[in-house]
Amino acid sequence: MHHPRRKPTTLAAVAALALVGVLGACSSGAAAGESGGDASTYTWWDPYPQHDDASDWAGRVQACGEEAGVTIERTAYDTTALTNQALLAAQEGTSPDVILLDNPAVSTLSDTGMLTTVDELGLDTSAIDENLLAAGVVGGETYGIPIGANTLSLYYNADILTDAGVDPASVTDWDSLTAALKAVTGNGDKGITFAGIGTEEGSFQFLPWFWGAGADLRDLDSPEAVAALELWTGWLEEGYAPNSVINNSQNTTWEEFLTGDFGFAVNGTWQVDSAAGADFETGVVQLPGRDGGVAQAPTGGEFILAPVQEDTERYDVTRQIVECMTTPEGFVETANTFAYYVPPTADGQAALVEEKPELEPWVEAVRNAKGRTSDDLGADYPVISEALWTAVQNALSGAATAQEALETAQADAETGTS
Amino acid sequence: MTTTEATATAGAPPGVGPGAGRVPAPRRRRGPAASQWAAAGFATPLLVYLILFYAYPLVRNIDLSVHDYTIRAFVQGNAEFVGFEKYAEVFSSATFPTALWNTAVFTVVSIVFQYATGLALAVFFRSGFRLSGLLRAMFLVPWLLPLIVSASTWAWMLNSDNGIVNSVLAAFGVGQINWLTSPGTALLSVTIANIWLGIPFNLVILYSGLQNIPGEVYEAASLDGAGPWKQFWSITFPLLRPVSAITILLGLIYTLKVVDVIWIMTTGGPGDASTTLAIWSYREAFGTGQPDFSPAAAVGNLLILIALVFGFLHLQLQRRQEDS
């Protein structure tokens, strides 16, 4: 008689316990997500999942934590995922103490009010190059510090160019570049490869030509913009560039270049080491403007940001961590850890060039580079950029002419930003 | 053989029934409250689970779609209520007709070919020849591979300049086809990849459905002089109808929401050439530097509605089948 009576209650108790367990798991999960947790642990997010906990980079992050007397809990995300995670965390009020984020996303995040300004944190940004800091400046306030910068240049395969009788120094404007491509393809090699993929990378690669023609991001269907897009479509039509550039990411582009079949490739500072290790001799020239001169390339690279915290006591340590990452020595160390970052200060650049003279052209390129969110575009940039890469896709694939594609893009950008 | 098993299990409950009926009697006498509490206790975890993981996301998705969630509003939580404005935006967008058409083509073509191939293979493997087990296992490979691997492999194979497909075609004198980079073939390419991915699912379900058709029926049919073709159309196909219906319905729902294959192969491009509703929703929310959660949620809800319509259609069909 005891048995059947006890059974349901026991089971109910078990069920109730299970329920408590479920809820408990939820609440403890939320508590752990609470920014930083305790006062001696600081949270840090960055977009470098390729650097694991045992890497030099992770060690450097820890060292900056130790210097400030705290432990840093580092989490790495993919770049796009990081922006979304940051937004979600801000919504939940669980932002990390420090985020390293791709520079065009800074204005987007600052627009939400989730970032502290450098003034609030008490940081000094006077030494930072203005063109590099620009991506973090919105409405007169500065929301972060670049930890380094990179940009695009034109890599070439010296062997192929010699075979085709092309002197890399002769590439000074669009006509001479197209002539060089003609000579290279005429010699049986492939001309140029670049990334025209329908993501931010596609816009990033198109901008040097867009700006090099004198076009403005507020006016996507200007004759200059059409000329830039026609340069690309022309290369595809003539067979100077492979059709697959339409889906190429920058990594794919680089893999193609490393096969040794291509005369030229548009790629970034981050491939310097890889280029040095290629099976053929490589070199770099600055991306040419339409009528000569160096085209402005967009700046790449991450900003170090401090999201707003409920507990403002934390800012003091956060400031120390940020400062540790942004001293002149810190910049050079970051540059060396990644092998592709140019320091954003004159001191840092000088120190880097002294250590590695071969990086001189890249330092030059970074000094000439332009922030994508500059010209007061701010949070409008992502909308304009999407319209732009869509136009590039449509024109390259032959779905529309350059003129039509850019007119649609301008219309989309206007609706999207109004 | 399977039918006898089925009747055996079907016959079991009445046998157990009386025995089971005896147990609750003393329980009820002791106090109904306790057993009701127990029942509630049993149901609560399930209810909590349903609310937490099914109802809440759905409600939240609807909530997102009827507010104007700019990024700022998303973080600060003060999005303005705009009713169906976002839906109107979605419907009037130039992408909408393209995405709807692409979704329809992608889904219908995928399902037709997946089902036909899966059924043909299932019938083929039913005869249980030597090595058929091994071969059948090999057909499951697409299912076992991580999607990122298979989709990337497809993208490489279909590469315009260096892809193996084009180099084979070139050997037969066919010129370069820009599979993934031309607006005319991008949707076709991702559909082919998706068909390949979906065949194992159809094969497995239909094959197990075939196991439930008793062998005697076929024996009787062949005694009556029905050839294999006649046997297929008069026995296999009609008897497989309930299994076919569920396979197609599940396939439909899976295919409607496919994002990964298309995203990895073409990111919905070039332009909007391979953009389906699911891709569009994903792109609005996560594909650009500017997350637009409201239109993304609106498109997502639209997809749920479409899937729901087909779900009800299936229920209706099933009921009619049971009635007849």
UniProtKB/TrEMBL annotation, chain A:
Keyword Signal among UniProt keywords: yes
SUPFAM superfamilies according to UniProt: Periplasmic binding protein-like II (SSF53850)
Keyword terms of this UniProt record: Signal
Signal peptide start-end: 1-32
Bilayer-crossing regions: none
Designated name of the protein: Extracellular solute-binding protein
Organism taxonomic ancestry: Bacteria, Bacillati, Actinomycetota, Actinomycetes, Micrococcales
UniProtKB/TrEMBL annotation, chain B:
Keyword Nuclease: no
Protein location: Cell membrane
Regions of compositional bias (Low complexity) in chain numbering: 1-13
Spans annotated as Disordered: 1-28
Regions crossing the membrane: 37-56, 99-125, 137-157, 163-180, 187-210, 232-254, 261-282, 294-315
InterPro entries: MetI-like, MetI-like_sf
Top-level lineage group: Bacteria
Membrane topology: Multi-pass membrane protein
Sequence ranges assigned to domain ABC transmembrane type-1 in this UniProt record: 100-314
UniProt xrefs under Gene3D superfamilies: MetI-like
Broad class of the protein's primary localization: membrane
Protein's UniProt keywords contain Transmembrane: yes
Keywords: Cell membrane, Membrane, Transmembrane, Transmembrane helix, Transport
Family to which this protein belongs: Belongs to the binding-protein-dependent transport system permease family.
Listed PANTHER family: BLR7065 PROTEIN, SPERMIDINE_PUTRESCINE TRANSPORT SYSTEM PERMEASE PROTEIN
Protein name per Swiss-Prot or TrEMBL: Sugar ABC transporter permease
Organism: Promicromonospora umidemergens
